[in-house]
TrEMBL record:
This is ATP synthase epsilon chain. One of its GO terms (molecular function) is ATP binding. Keywords: ATP synthesis, Cell membrane, CF(1), Hydrogen ion transport, Ion transport, Membrane, Transport. The keyword Cell membrane applies. The keyword Amino-acid biosynthesis does not apply. F-type ATPases have 2 components, CF(1) - the catalytic core - and CF(0) - the membrane proton channel. CF(1) has five subunits: alpha(3), beta(3), gamma(1), delta(1), epsilon(1). CF(0) has three main subunits: a, b and c. Belongs to the ATPase epsilon chain family. HAMAP family: ATP_synth_epsil_bac. GO terms for cellular component: endomembrane system; plasma membrane; proton-transporting ATP synthase complex. Residues 4-83 form the ATP synthase F1 complex delta/epsilon subunit N-terminal domain. It is a peripheral membrane protein. CDD domains: F1-ATPase_delta.
Length: 133
């Protein structure tokens, strides 16, 4: 199968760089799968799991908490606000993230911001369940 370049940059380090067959992204407008030759798109990412298919039946999963994906016909670059490979994610780390967001939510009077933060909390809880943590 054809491949394309996928680069995933987190705030502390590059989490992935290499040739892949497909990438599933949690876009703010909905989940999307990117394959070689994809039309150019710039999309915001929500909290969720990015699934990288390196080859059939082989790949990686990365928990992402916001960011952007720059998609083109020959490559995808993700710049994440926060991210970690699934192997590094624990129930306690997700619970700490949820607690930190709850503190931010409780500290703001901006109703739109509160709603956004509530969405992030729900997305983290759903990711925790989906990952079996």
């Amino acid at each position: 199968m054809a491949t394309f370049q996928f680069d995933f940059v987190g705030p502390e380090r590059t989490l992935y760089s290499g040739q892949v067959e497909a990438v599933q992204l949690p876009g703010t407008e909905g989940e999307m799968t990117v394959l070689p030759g994809h039309a150019p798109v710039l999309t915001a990412l929500k909290v969720g799991v990015i699934v990288v298919t390196e080859q059939q039946n082989s790949g990686k999963r990365i928990l992402v908490r916001g960011g952007f994906a720059d998609i083109g016909p020959t490559g995808v670059t993700v710049i994440a606000e926060r991210a970690a490979p699934i192997e590094e994610v624990t129930p306690a780390s997700i619970d700490r993230d949820i607690e930190a967001i709850e503190l931010l939510r409780d500290a703001t009077e901006d109703l739109e911001r509160r709603e956004e933060l509530n969405g992030q909390i729900v997305q983290l809880q759903e990711s925790k369940v989906a990952l079996g943590l």
